[in-house]
Amino acid sequence: MFENNVTRRGFVTGAAAVAGLAGLSTIAPGLASADPKIADQHTEAELRASEAGALAMMTFQKIDGTPVYYWRSNRGNTTLRNWQCTDAFYNALVAWIRDLRSLSSSYGSISYIVSAGFYVDKPGQHGAGTAMDLDHVRWSGGNTISPLDKHHASTNAAIRKRYLATEAVCRRRFRYVLDGWYNADHADHIHSDFGGLPVRVLKDSESDTKFVQAVCNNFRGSGLVIDGIWGTNTQNAFNGLKSALGVTGDPHTSSSVWQAMLSKIATKGFANQNI
Ligand SMILES: [Zn+2]
Known about the structure:
9 strands, binds zinc ion, TAT_signal, Extensin-like C-terminal domain-containing protein
């Protein structure tokens, strides 16, 4: 795997490029206080502007060897392009895609992912080079998940489970994750950024609560209103989810407990199994 990283490093520019992957497990908590920005649809012009202006960013075309395409102006194209983010965020992306490969290994390898943007010249986490908008994932066995096609709202329960499995993997590495249930601006991508780390599930987070409610509904038929409010019904459903997954410990305060719970949700989701 290190050879892939060396190849990837060939695309790196800027001072941040000298940092290695040794710190992979320690995701930089910097910039964690910024709120996620909801109006984060990115145009090709914005992306071009970002390439011209971002000197402190590293540049990449693949994450840990997996190509990252851009379909917003030309769906289906497989042209490599230059993306930018901070070195620390790239390292988190490597950890994320390794998690994704591991948890979805029954689908084969990951052929490519599609993004709507990482660093973008605008305020917030994208402007800091510490955010990703995920549009699509394609596996070698032929499976796909496409937030771009609003798969959170698919009529196919297996597709909704796969969407939540993919989101669960994002949540293993990123605290602020905004999905199709969160609001209309995120109906067509999953946003992940460096805000709010370390990872855990917070009852006063609208996005966290909506994710939990969607998981309980789609894996356990809980019938919750997905309103982002952590009330009695959500608490009871969450207790049932934890119990069914054999989770002990407190996912609200322990990153390792929450990450392990997310891995179990992802495993069930990629296998199209109820919990
Ligand atoms: Zn975004």
